[in-house]
Design brief:
The chain is α/β, with parallel strands linked by helices. The chain contains five helices and eight strands. The chain has helices at 2-6, 16-24, 65-74, 92-98, 121-136, and strands at residues 11-14, 31-34, 37-38, 41-42, 52-58, 80-86, 104-109, 113-118.
Length: 137
């Protein structure tokens, strides 16, 4: 498994399905970000126990300062859960940007599978460039 091979500094999952599947597989995850929805449909909440639980509002299609700041803080915890009122899809962006080097951010790509991003200086540059293009439009 990739997590054992790469020995990441942190592992973050963004999304209910990937968060549930890593839990079932027994994969150590430091931060799980969920909104209790899949493909914009409400799902029954998954039982995730974490040392620290945060709740944030993050409407669809945006990244709130509250959500970004909470990710930054939660990444300092050994094990945390962020429950999002709204949508968590775009929160992979601040998760990558705020993660330490060699951290993994894992999220689902609907009907495709999992995307695994390794936080690095180069990857953060790439993500910032994409964000800047988004804010210019």
């Amino acid at each position: 498994m990739l997590v054992q091979q790469s020995k990441p500094s942190k592992v973050t999952t963004v999304g209910d399905v990937v968060s549930r599947e890593t839990l079932v597989a027994g994969i150590q995850v430091n931060l799980r970000i969920v909104d209790q929805m899949t493909l914009r449909k409400r799902i029954s909440p998954i039982e995730i126990r974490a040392e620290r639980t945060y709740k944030v509002r993050n409407p669809a299609g945006i990244i709130t300062k509250e959500a970004w700041d909470t990710i930054r803080v939660a990444l300092k915890d050994r094990e945390a859960l962020i429950l999002v009122d709204g949508e968590e899809d775009l929160l992979a962006i601040p998760a990558v940007l705020e993660s330490p080097d060699n951290a993994l951010v894992v999220y689902g790509q609907p009907s495709e599978g999992l995307v695994v991003v390794t936080a690095s200086l180069e990857k953060k540059r790439e993500v910032r460039k994409i964000m800047n293009q988004m804010t210019e439009e």
